[in-house]
Amino acid sequence: MIKKIHGIDRHKKYSTISTLNREGQEIEFQRNCYDLKGYVNNLDPEDAVVIEASTGSFYWADLIETKGALCYVLDPRKFKIIRDSWNKTDKHDARNMSKALWVYVVTGEFGIPTVYKPDVVIRELRKLFTQYNLLNRQIRMLKNSVQALLAENGLTVTSEGKSKLRLEKHGMEILKGRELTHASRVSIEMSLKMLWRLVEEKEKMGQEIILSGEPLKDKVKLLITIKGITPLSALAFLADIGDVERFKKLKKMNAYLGLVPREDESGGKSRKGHINRESRKLTRTLLTQSVIHVSTASPYLREYYVNLTNRRGAGRARIALIRKLCGIMRRMLLNGERFRWINADNFERKLKKYERELIKIKEERKSA
């Protein structure tokens, strides 16, 4: 039975903690606790803790749960007592959290809004994908910088030349025989060297993602039965959604992935706007790059994409197709079924490549 309830308002250097007993009375209050780890080590299964969601919250939640205590990671945006408070101080936040948790634990009323806490595999994948996307952005910036510098010298780069920019073997060929100012040549050469290094690091990060996602191998094998879905994009989808069963409806999952347009309604009239970009966008970003391949995965998807492109334009059609695809992948995961229009040859090639890559990465790790 829970005997103590702890509300912890955590900051970088210290934490403010309010502790209540079973009767709801505050038995301890620490305005500035500088040793949070020492405090957590004294917890036991008779304790319940609530902390506010912020950077590092999951680390502390894991540590608290190893002591046998219950831990709730509060969503501050949905917790009105904190969100709408006029008198927002560390002391009030800690006490409000402990009181809310006491009401929930003791009486079972007024549940507190918490955030989804993914398992360790999903959290590790999310960290790696964050760095992967960062490398992608930096690569794009450097490529655009090189093209801009060439344009300033009256030069353009063909589509074939743009692809060669990423390769150290052919990248410098673009500069041969070109009339460039000294500053432009130095800047381009430096940008290309940084670009090649980032491309190399991106490949290594991709390997780390594949290896870290090995516990999800069965789900990856299921999702790559869809033409256009690679192990990397499958892992991105799995990293984004975490536990697919937590979404009771497809619309909720699509909203979580930022695939549902905003809707404004006034005076009985409804108007749909742009998609909500303040969401998890990893899946949307990666699948956008492979929309053309995905659209040929089945006659149904091809017809759906072509018709929507003709009626609403390519931009809306891309998002609609990704939304449709995510619904298909959700259903496949829930039912454990392969894609209905599976291309056996395409799937076998992807599967063999995926398994060879896993073996290769493991061997390289052993020999390193």
Provide structural commentary.
The structure is a single chain. Helix content is about 55%, strand content about 10%. It is of the alpha/beta class and about 375 residues long. The strands form 2 sheets. The protein has a 5-stranded mixed β-sheet. A two-stranded antiparallel ribbon has the order 6-7. A hairpin with a 2-residue loop joins strand 6 (about 260-265) and strand 7 (about 270-275). The relative contact order is 0.07.
Q: What's this entry about, in short?
A:
With 368 residues, this protein is an alpha/beta fold. 57% of the residues lie in helices and 12% in strands.
Helix-strand topology string: EEEHEHEHHHHHHHHHEEHHHHH
Oligomer: single chain
Structural class category: alpha/beta
- DSSP E strands, number: 7
Strand content: 5-15%
- Shape descriptor reads globular
How many structural domains are formed by the residues?
Answer: 3
Largest sheet: 5 strands, mixed
What is the CA-atom radius of gyration, in angstroms?
A: 26 Å
pLDDT averaged residue by residue: 87
Share of helical residues: 55-70%
Number of helices: 16
Strand order of the largest sheet: 3-2-1-4-5
- CA(first)-CA(last) distance: 50 Å
Which regions contain 5 or more consecutive residues with pLDDT less than 50? none
